[in-house]
Amino acid sequence: MSDAAVNLDQKLSTFTEHWSPRIISQFNDCDVMVVKAEGEFKWHHHDETDDFFLVLKGTLRIELRDRDVTLRPGELFVVPKGVEHRPVAEGEVHLLLIEPKGVPNTGDAATAAQKVSI
Amino acid sequence: MSDAAVNLDQKLSTFTEHWSPRIISQFNDCDVMVVKAEGEFKWHHHDETDDFFLVLKGTLRIELRDRDVTLRPGELFVVPKGVEHRPVAEGEVHLLLIEPKGVPNTGDAATAAQKVSI
Q1: Stretches in chain A below the pLDDT threshold 70
Q2: What residues in A contact B78, CB-CB < 8 Å?
Q3: Å between A113 CA and nearest CA of chain B
Q4: CA atoms of A79 and A56, how far apart (whole Å)
Q5: Does residue B31 surpass a pLDDT of 80?
Q6: ipTM score of the complex?
Q7: What is the sign of the dihedral through the CA atoms of B80, B98, B8 and A48?
């Protein structure tokens, strides 16, 4: 838990990797994270949690099996628990994510990125 | 649960009241809300939950008993569960808030604003 204001752009300036979430704060049993995205992520779902996306920069297309949801800066979408989705970033996209602690970003611990606190 | 992108500025444009959160999405057992703030809120705390603030516009000072935390656009702070705090907005401030469903914004159901979904 940070004891000071957390500046999202400052946190994003500290790394360059894509699809590698950084934990910047915690809210109850959840990690609050920023991530840089570019290109296609994996199709996946989370059996036990919704998946929160807020776009800070760029355009993110969240592909669902029946439609796409396109998010621009200042737009958010929550993928319901169990719903298959694939995030696709055309160019670099910056996101704020919220997930329960320990949830693998791919929906599968074997392929998930390690979440690092910064 | 919205089934489309939620544009924060569009949601904020639909009301003018201060300190009256609007529910714009849901994430697991939490309400995702936007609120317009101006002036001093009440000193309060939440026994059962952290309190998530992300500033979208303006400057919010979160007074704690031992210090102040000042938030500008693109900055967030999570007030830990049980910690007394008083948000103070100098001029109008727009915020994204996340709280478990049913949590009174003042920490006390008797004085809380009704949270309306938009």
Answers
A1: 1-2
A2: 1-2, 25-27, 32
A3: 22
A4: 17
A5: yes
A6: 0.93
A7: positive
Whole-angstrom Cα distance, residue B50 to residue B13? 27
- Within 8 A of A24 by CB-CB distance, chain B residues are 76
Select from A54, A42, A58 the least CA-distant residue to A93.
A58
User: Contact A108/A54 with Cβ under 8 angstroms?
Assistant: no
Nearest Cα neighbor of B94 from B57, B54, B52, B59 is B57
> Strand, helix or coil at A9?
helix
Global pTM? 0.93
Q: Mutating which of A6, A13, A28 best tests the B interface, going by the most B Cβ atoms within 10 A? A: A28
Closest CA to A54 of B34, B60, B50: B34
CB contact A7 to B (< 8 Å): yes
A71 inside 8 A of chain B by CB: yes
Q: CB-based contacts of B45: which residues, under 8 Å, 6+ apart?
A: B79, B82, B83, B84, B85, B107
Centroid of chain to Cα B6:
17
Which residues in chain A are contacts of B26 at CB distance < 8 A? 50, 78
CA B47 to CA B114: how far, in whole Å? 19
Q: Does B76 touch chain A (CB under 8 A)?
A: yes
Residue in this structure with the two tokens 């915690």, named with its chain if needed: A26
Cβ–Cβ < 8 Å for A100, A94: no
B36-78 pLDDT per residue, tens: 999 999 999 999 999 999 999 999 999 999 999 999 999 999 9
Mean pLDDT of chain B: 93
Cβ pair B79, B49 in contact under 8 A: no
